[in-house]
Write the structure tokens for this entry.
Amino acid sequence: MCTEGRYAALVALSTQLHVVTGKGGTGKTTVAAALATALADAGQRVLLCEVEGRQGIAQLFDVPPLPYEERKVAAGLGGGEVFALAVDPEAALLEYLDMYYRLGRAGKALDRFGVIDFATTIAPGVRDVLLTGKVYEAARRRDGDQFAYDAVILDAPPTGRITRFLNVNAEVAGLAKVGPVRKQADSIMRMMHAPTTRVHVVTLLEEMPVQETLDGITGLRRTGLPVGNIIVNLVRTGALSPATQEAVGSGDLTTDAVAAVLRAVALDPDAAPALLDAGRASRERQLLQDRQSARLRATGVPVATLPLLRDGIDLGALYELARALRDEGVA
Amino acid sequence: MTARVRTSPTGRPGRPRAANGATGGALDVDALLADRGVEIIVCCGSGGVGKTTTSAALALRAAEQGRRVCVLTIDPARRLAQSLGLTELDNVPRPVEGAGADGGSLDAMMLDMKRTFDEVVEAHASPEKAAQILSNPFYMALSSSFAGTQEYMAMEKLGQLHGQATSFIQDRAEDTSDPPWDLIVVDTPPSRSALDFLDAPERLSSLLDGRFVRVMLAPAKGPAKLFSAGLGLVTGALNKLLGAQVLTDVQTFVAAFDTLFGGFRQRAESTFALLQAPQTAFLVVAAPESVAMREAAYFVERLAGEGMPLAGLVVNRVHPGGAPGIGSVEAEAAAHKLANGDEAEQQVAELLTLHTERRRTAARETRVTKSFRAAHPSVPTMSVPALAGDVHDLESLRLIGALLAGEDEATS
């Protein structure tokens, strides 16, 4: 690891960057956190960043709300560590101004005039440059001759916005043709397009999230951003085997046959029609899922699946999902 | 912030709604749709709970009970949009073929947020000023990617549609034709939080009315003394960071927008007032999961706090408990026994395992729903069973409408 890490640090522009996106409600924050846990389990030192001010990471790891500061939130089983950071655009802008321009007083004046608010909300692209800029800084930070982190994971904005978010310089170009903000945007772009970056798209096996995933992948590919995995989340393991689904669907398994078996084990035979109805509904859902799954596979992007954990997500569940991500070859 | 107008913009007297009484119990959807005093139904709730489908199903049912309905959808799934005949985003309500009975009709539209914003600019600024605004990079960012614009534009469009319907009623003396709609059903954007659309108008107007914007305007129209030392520092810093051309863009944008500020603020306020008016009914849509129900609870409390009329809660995609007469424990035990039997026995074992899962899911969902009811006893609720398939035609929307109205799946 050590020599390898040193070598990687010598040739690479930045450390490994995993960008996790997905339609709202698909669980991208959970997947990002599970990925961080998986890498930490493998002994890596990982930074997990969120940029949407939701404090989703703090909730998942059951720690107090994260400040604008890198904090250790979990230890990996293999000796690795997960650090987390909630990137706040206003704090990032002030930090940026202070770092590069020593704008102590002017920085405050900017705030007083509402410029910070303006710049971080409606000035096109500036917000995204600030958010990705902080991630860029962390991904390039060195500790001696190695990168400070073995991997940086970004819990990114939803699929609908991801291409625009990652292609910050295009947005900024409409605004700043020169100056440090433009220069910064250009360097961020180089990192985003480098082979050290992978963009993962989280989805559910439902029509809308799948459509958004396909559209998102088209957008990422068009702009040359490196697509990593499609991660299908919350997959229910069906209770019915393919053979039973077939028998239920074709009518080979009759109401009478079911009633007879129920009678034999002293259960109410009148329940047979309802049991078969439930079986048919389950089959229909399965077929829908299979159709969506085929659409995802047609993209050629590797597809990984994560199970639905019925008891909700807690720290233990994160480790379980982390294991699944490793089994699926994502981490 | 200025005080909000709390009277109905159409000046009609308030009238208590049956569904808004102090007693909870079941939500009577058909009574709500039949109430001619209800002119707007807003479906809100967190993302992914089926708001759009619920809005479309309600609108269709109302149309088939004789109302002239317009449904404003925000981001429909492709197949749902197709089922409503919405093949393109043209920001204008289009008639849905094959929908409506008893003199009722259904028009549907998909919101195009940028187009709506552009139209507002075009309607309220001179042609040359409008052109200046539309091509400004700050305006383009504001109208296409500012968080909150979609929510704001949904409300703007609602105001416009309602205005269209209302002015028709007022002009009816000379005009013998009927108003285009007597009911508008509106879906709310898939926000991070269900509350965003209530906050968006305020956020947008406070941004456009902020100190920076006012200071930026000052050089263009005020005396030179407004150039304070602070502003010099600010402009210096901005020039250094972004290049001088940016400041010119900001100034152009702000100056051009200035004439619109008053109008924006005013319309945001009147839309807010419209939402509080007695002819509006809110339906909160939730899924029977703890996160979504918690969000629904926040929403219910917020609506009450803002004085907005809540008609009730729709708990969507509830999983039915499956076959009556077999409990989950005995099903599990029997499945275990049958698992090594012949083919039919193995298949029944799988069906019993499925049954156990369904019973457990149903029990969890019932628990979540019950705890909401216990905390909000005055809110009428309605549970809608989950369908196995996608909603992709008017027939399945009709089925959902029937389920919303409490009709049994078998009788519809």
In short: Chain A touches chain B through 72 residues (CB under 8 Å). Strands of chain A lie at 16-22, 45-50, 71-75, 81-86, 142-143, 146-147, 151-155, 197-203, 227-235, 303-307. Residues 240-296 of chain A form one domain. Chain A has two domains: 2-236+308-327, 240-296.
